[in-house]
Structures are given as structure tokens and as C-alpha cells.
Amino acid sequence: MELLSFLLLLPILHLLFTIWKWVNDKRDQECYILDYQCYKPTDDRMCGTEFCGNVIKRNKNLGLNEYKFLLKAIVSSGIGEQTYAPRLMFSGREECPTLADGILEMEEFFHDSIGKLLSRSGVSAQEIDLLVVNVSMITTLPSLSSRIINHYKMRPDIKSFNLTGMGCSASLISLDIVRNCFKSYKNKYALLITSESLSPNWYAGNDRSMILANCLFRSGGCAILLTNNNSLKHKAMFKLKCLVRTHHGARDESYECCIQREDEKGRMGFHLGKNLPKSATRAFVDNLRVITPKILPIRELLRFMVVSAVKKWNRRGAPPKGTTQGPMKSAVNFKSGVDHFCIHTGGKAVIDGIGISLDLTEYDLEPARMTLHRFGNTSASSLWYVLAYMEAKKRLKKGDRVLMISFGAGFKCNSCLWEVVRDLDDGNVWKDEIEKYPPKTLANPYLEKYGWIQNEDISTFKLPEE
């Protein structure tokens, strides 16, 4: 009888052990951010209106129409007076960069931000198990990840990844690599490095689709320390809830809308096509279609399904011509599952477009607008400056959910949802100046200083000597 009872108990014990093992493994697969450090270059690399105007005037290939185009683009860009540029811009060598210029730009960021991050967290470089670096527009030998490993004397068994060509959405791609590695290895530290090298990528021609990039991109970067060690979750800042990647590279129109290429005279640049807004919208919609069920409560999904069904039914019996119907809201309410929206600072139009699509308020868009104004478009690292703004404003409270949305060449749209693990108020890169934001006005001084060019005649145009 006892033997029979034991035999009957075995399957139950096995089931309980299987459940316990699944739960235990699941806990070790979580992805936490322990700390992050955005990069603020030194003040001698700050570029205001006058400096940017001088850089533009140095390009002898521009005519009146190109100057007018640039003025219009800069004034409406949402970028302010305190963004940063690479050092070679200040020595007037942007048209003849060297490999050393690109490496110097990256190493200044690496040594500053990684050093601060490791020092503040109390984690040594030798404890890092996984290193993922994404810098799209420069490739070196040895790789940038190897340069970091050499500088900080990291372990010989460290697993490293070096990503290039991934564009502005690269930091979430790097995050996905970290997340997947965490599924296979327990109790690990990961260091994610995201930036962009502008030094070798200034466009010196007059193709409008390529000179536009000169107006938008600025220097920046971020170092992020992550772990899947569940015993450290009380020290964590954020916990990753889900991540969705959408890639439309198979569509020729999407693939070609953001592409590095040479112009007709062989000058290398970054082409931003007219079909970019359409491609971005398509990728955004497809990405939302996948991530929405993962981040919104069931009640909101049911509400949307009912309202959509009613709207579809009403269309079958549309009112006669000349009559009116009141508007019926059918859009998904993303605020039912998201507290904060961390939007890529690709430009004012990008921020406005996402705001309209998700029915966001100016309060929701403020972190992205202020980041664009203060730091410009820092490519893949821009999301983390937006996140730091929220932290500095003391908006991030325990249990809040933050949705990150990024776009990149390819064409790609990537998004993820974070849960705030504890109240946050450090401020990171915004710490010393957050009280100044938002400013009373975001009016761009370019129009006041260079607006005269709009009244010039193309036949007599000549830049004044200063």
C-alpha cells in the first residue's frame, strides 16, 4: 500500500518540480537595468547658431536655394543652441576627416561614460560578462568593442558583439541581444554601449536629401549596465517587460528611404528620401499591431474590439448624404497600459507624428521635445536622454510603465516596455540644468540671424563677409 502511494505521488512530485524549475529559470531570464550614464561632451564642443552658420558657409558647393532650404530645415527642426559636434568641426576639417577623428570621438565618450557608470554602480570592468556596442557609421579594426575591452582590461572569456549599420534603432537591437543571451546564462552582467560617430560622416555636397542629415545629428552616447541576477532586482532601476522588432527591409521603398550613398559627384552622404514618412508610418503601425496586445490591459483591448465592431456595423448603414453623425472614438487608449512615452528624437515631425498617432498630450511629448532641443538627434542613444529627462523631472515612480519607440534605416521600427522598479530622481545628464526646462520659448535664433537670405535674389546672391 505504501509502495502504491509512493508510485502515485511520484508524478505529482515531478509536476511540482517541473513547475518550480520553470518558475526559477524564468526568474533568471529577467532583464534589469541597474544603472545608465548618458554622455555630455565638454563645453568647447558646443555648437550654437553662429558656429553652425559658419560651418554651413564653409561649404562652397551650396547656392542660394540650398541655403534657403537649410534655413527652413534648421528653424523648424526643434534643435536649440547647446548641442554638441565632433572636434574636427571646430578645426574646420569636416570635409577631410581621418580615421583618428572618428576613433577620438568614440573614445572620449567611452572613457567618460563607461568610467562614470562602473564607478557609480560599484561593478568592476572584470565582472562584465557581456559587451554589446552599437555605432552605425564607423567600422574599425580592431572593433570598437575590442578597444573598450583593451582599455578596461576586461576578462578573456567576455562575450562581445559589435554592431554597425543598424541606424537610430540600434540600442533596442542591442538590448534584444542582451535579453536573448540572458535566457541562456544565469546571474550575468551586461554592458550596452550606444552612440554614433559623426566625424567621418559630414556631407559636403549640395544634394538636399543628404545635407538635411547635417542639420539633425549631434554628438552623444549612453552606457547601460544590465543584469539577470534576480538577487540584484532591489538595486535595479527598470525591468524589461517586452520588446518587439519590426523590419521592412524586404520592401524596396522602405529599404531605400534611409541609405548611405554617394551623390552625383562622388561625395558620400546619408540620403533621406521623400518616402521616409510613409515608410516610417507603415513600420510603426506594424510594430504597434504586435506590441499592443502585450502592453495593454484586456479591458482596453475588449473596448477597442467592441467599438471597432460597432463602427464597422454602422458603416453598413451609412447616413444619407447631407446628414451628419457625431464623432465616435475608436482609437486604442495607450495610456491605459503606459504611463510614460520615450520617443526617438528623430526630428520635430517624428515627435509630432507619434503624438498624433497615440493621442498624446504636450506633457507626454515634453521629454522628447526637450531632448531634441538640448542634445539634438543623437541617433540610437537619444532614447536614453529622453528617459533621463523623465527621471530628472521626478516623473518615474515605482510601478510606472515606460514605452520606448525608435526608428532606423532598413527600414526598422523597434519598441519595448519597461517597468520602473523603484522611485527615480537622480537626473543623470540633466542633473545640473533640469530647472531650466522646459524653456519659455523654443524659437530658433537662426531665423533672426539668417532670415535675410529669404529675400536674396539668385542672380546677385553673395554671402556677406564677416
TrEMBL record:
GO CC annotation terms, alphabetical: membrane
Catalysed reactions listed for this entry: a very-long-chain acyl-CoA + malonyl-CoA + H(+) = a very-long-chain 3-oxoacyl-CoA + CO2 + CoA
Pathway named in the protein's UniProt entry: Lipid metabolism; fatty acid biosynthesis
Superkingdom: Eukaryota
Enzyme Commission number(s): 2.3.1.-
Stated family: Belongs to the thiolase-like superfamily. Chalcone/stilbene synthases family.
Protein name per Swiss-Prot or TrEMBL: 3-ketoacyl-CoA synthase
